[in-house]
């Protein structure tokens, strides 16, 4: 087992990893930018190293700075968390070259899933259902128009290196194709340095369902059931739940086995998710694979009583997984508490927290790095807490979540708490019958 793990991340996920390491008897090293010097992950780690200024490129995305911190402190492994360098193949390879274990996928595994066109081809060969579309990247507008006419509109073009909805456009007729093509290429090139696009049939009325998987160094892979991530705004998740209200035991097993086949096809090591779109007829299609831990992993932990961070560390150390597939014993839901103003287009709201009271009670968990007097910097993602609630039924979870949200007091900044409270009362949400487009018609006034 590792003696010391450096955590190449910040905020709540860094603190989450520190807690598991402490339970396992593993020393920790926090790295931080000057903007995060007062963050809890810096205080709670055994050691802390400042790696640069607030700008991510000069701190949390600076591979030389992070490797130097690992060497200076004698860390024998690096946990990247999520975001930043967690799916960076170059970073994974450099860690290997320096004899430091990267707690995550290998460079080859990240490369095979990081490019979405390659990932789709890999999954298709493995027998995983994929959305009809182009074989690889589109070479021209003409090729895209021809394929769209054959498949039938609507279609969607996506950036091969994309994420968060950038470089993505829905096209409903041929007359819209050229503008969508140009806009998507420009956006993708600016965001990712890669303007490659591929084309898919647009799945109407979809649900976004992901399967949590874990693979070890011996070729074994198991799944830990699904998470429903359909409550999104501009492709950014706001609420996740498990089990999904629309997934039957038979469909869960079918999707779980498909996810396992896909992971085995690349010899996957570590925790990850295989993401699917499920249409209104119950057919599912591979969308992408995330080769890292997910923001929403706690809801899976709550319904399976399984520490995913601990499993990541054990797998990286060469421990074999049990190989047993898990199914939910309870229901759980996560609300992302962001420093944003939902009544004004989710405008970021950095600043000092003047009053903070976190909810508690049976079935309530809060993962957060903030405290009274903490100043939220404007430099990073706006998520400041995750409120996770579990219970015996979906109805109980919604009732408990509303109670916990009403207890959650954050003053000095705007947050998404008022939005979540309103969502818990929404008849459409409570019914469980919604799609990824649900928030497009949601009333954000009077929050």
UniProtKB/TrEMBL annotation:
SUPFAM superfamilies, alphabetized: Glutathione synthetase ATP-binding domain-like, PreATP-grasp domain, Rudiment single hybrid motif
EC numbers for this chain: 6.3.4.14
Leading EC class: ligase
Keywords (A to Z) from UniProt: ATP-binding, Biotin, Fatty acid biosynthesis, Fatty acid metabolism, Ligase, Lipid biosynthesis, Lipid metabolism, Magnesium, Metal-binding, Nucleotide-binding
SMART domains: Biotin_carb_C
Listed Pfam families: Biotin_carb_C, Biotin_carb_N, CPSase_L_D2
Gene Ontology biological process: fatty acid biosynthetic process; malonyl-CoA biosynthetic process
Domain ATP-grasp: start-end pairs: 120-317
Pathway(s): Lipid metabolism; malonyl-CoA biosynthesis; malonyl-CoA from acetyl-CoA: step 1/1
Gene3D superfamilies recorded: ATP-grasp fold, B domain
Organism superkingdom: Bacteria
PROSITE patterns: ATP_GRASP (PS50975), BC (PS50979), CPSASE_1 (PS00866), CPSASE_2 (PS00867)
All copies of domain Biotin carboxylation, residue ranges: 1-444
Any one Gene Ontology molecular-function term assigned to this protein's record: metal ion binding
Reaction(s) this enzyme catalyzes, per UniProt: N(6)-biotinyl-L-lysyl-[protein] + hydrogencarbonate + ATP = N(6)-carboxybiotinyl-L-lysyl-[protein] + ADP + phosphate + H(+)
Subunit structure of this chain's protein: Acetyl-CoA carboxylase is a heterohexamer of biotin carboxyl carrier protein, biotin carboxylase and the two subunits of carboxyl transferase in a 2:2 complex.
Job of this protein: This protein is a component of the acetyl coenzyme A carboxylase complex; first, biotin carboxylase catalyzes the carboxylation of the carrier protein and then the transcarboxylase transfers the carboxyl group to form malonyl-CoA.
NCBIfam families xref list: accC, PRK08591.1
The protein's name: Biotin carboxylase
Origin species: Spirosoma terrae
Gene that this polypeptide is encoded by: accC
């Amino acid at each position: 087992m590792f003696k010391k793990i450096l955590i190449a991340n910040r905020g709540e996920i860094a603190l989450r990893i520190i807690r598991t390491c402490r339970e396992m008897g593993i020393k920790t090293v926090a790295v931080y930018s000057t903007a995060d010097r007062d963050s809890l992950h810096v205080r709670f780690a055994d050691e802390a190293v400042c790696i640069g200024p607030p700008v991510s490129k000069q701190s949390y995305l600076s591979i030389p700075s992070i490797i130097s911190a690992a060497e200076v402190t004698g860390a024998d492994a690096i946990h990247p968390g999520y975001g930043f360098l967690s799916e960076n193949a170059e970073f994974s390879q450099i860690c290997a070259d320096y004899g430091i274990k990267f707690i995550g996928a290998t460079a080859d595994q990240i490369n095979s899933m990081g490019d979405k066109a390659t990932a789709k081809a890999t999954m298709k060969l493995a027998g995983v259902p994929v959305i009809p579309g182009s074989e690889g990247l589109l070479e021209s507008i003409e090729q895209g128009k021809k394929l769209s006419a054959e498949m039938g509109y609507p279609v969607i073009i996506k950036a091969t290196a994309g994420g968060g909805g950038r470089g993505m456009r829905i096209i409903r007729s041929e007359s819209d194709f050229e503008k969508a093509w140009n806009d998507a290429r420009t956006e993708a090139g600016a965001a990712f340095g890669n303007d490659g696009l591929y084309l898919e049939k647009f799945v109407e009325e979809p649900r976004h369902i992901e399967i949590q998987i874990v693979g070890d160094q011996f070729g074994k892979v198991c799944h830990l059931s699904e998470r429903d991530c359909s409550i999104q705004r501009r492709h950014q998740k706001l609420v996740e739940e498990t089990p999904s209200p629309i997934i039957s035991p038979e469909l869960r097993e079918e999707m779980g086995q498909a996810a396992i086949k896909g992971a085995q096809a690349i010899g996957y090591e570590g925790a990850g998710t295989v993401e699917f779109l499920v249409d209104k007829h119950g057919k599912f299609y591979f969308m992408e694979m995330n080769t890292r831990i997910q923001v929403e992993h706690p809801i899976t932990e709550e319904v399976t009583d399984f520490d995913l961070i601990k499993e990541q560390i054990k797998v990286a150390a060469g421990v074999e997984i049990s190989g047993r597939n898990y199914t939910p014993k309870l229901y759980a839901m996560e609300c992302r508490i962001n420093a944003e103003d939902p009544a004004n287009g989710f405008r970021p709201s950095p600043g000092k927290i003047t009053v903070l009271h976190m909810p508690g009670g049976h079935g309530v968990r809060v993962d957060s790095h903030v405290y009274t007097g903490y100043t939220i910097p404007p430099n990073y993602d706006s998520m400041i807490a995750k409120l996770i609630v579990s219970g015996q039924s979906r109805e109980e979870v919604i009732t408990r979540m509303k109670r916990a949200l009403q207890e959650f007091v954050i003053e000095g900044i705007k947050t998404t708490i008022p939005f979540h409270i309103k969502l818990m009362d929404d008849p459409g949400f409570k019914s469980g019958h919604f799609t990824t487009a649900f928030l497009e018609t949601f009333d954000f006034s009077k929050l």
